[in-house]
Amino acid sequence: MRRWLADRRVQPALLAIVALLALALGVGLGLRQFDPGTGPPLPLEGGEWLPRPMALPDFRLADMRGEDFTRVSLEGQWTFMFFGYTHCPDICPVTTLLLAQAAEQVRRADPRGTVPRIVFVSVDPERDTPEILRQFVAHFHPDATGATAPLAELTPFTRALGIAHRKVEVEGDPDRYLVDHSGSVLLINPQARLQAVFPWPHEADQLSSDFLLIRERYASVGNAAPQGPNPASRKVP
Length: 237
Description:
Helix content: 25-40%
Strand order of the largest sheet: 1-10-9-4-5-6-2-3
CATH architecture: 3-Layer(aba) Sandwich
Number of strands: 10
CATH topology: Glutaredoxin
Number of domains: 1
Oligomer: single chain
CATH class: Alpha Beta
Order of helices and strands: HEEEEHEHEHEEEEH
Structural class: alpha+beta
């Protein structure tokens, strides 16, 4: 059992590497690229600051209340976005818990400041109904949002963001399956643009401290920073 869990934990690390490479290649820049128009590089403990925040593609998901969740839903606030599934044995509940802890640490550090919202996007729409999503995210944070969509609509969105996921059958049990997926957390800025990527593994202290640095930098240059390309305008392999 322990060997199986160890093997399973390797998958998010590999997928995170693949996702970061895809993201860097897709938007035509390295994650550590320095752009003179955005000030000096931003040193982060666990994340990668995007000096040219990437516009999100148009997408339409359904949230846990059955309402549309689109790019507009992300405007006007900071968002930690994580892709996983509720039947995940380890990475997903652990990461969602760490995001909740990080959000609370941000609130305590600056009670008057903006606290990032948590959005959990399921890559397993076959099993993750709105009610199951609601129960899952509520277990970790009262203000967290769960959302998903049929794979035909979800996959173009995840590919554009460099998020990999694939269904894996359980040997000897055709009625069960797992989903290998990227373990990265994406930070979306109030303009609904990808501002930073946090590769797996995660720590709540790093997520919160990095967010506070990013929020401060964004307040000084964010609105004037050059914008990265919109992935909706390019073809994704």
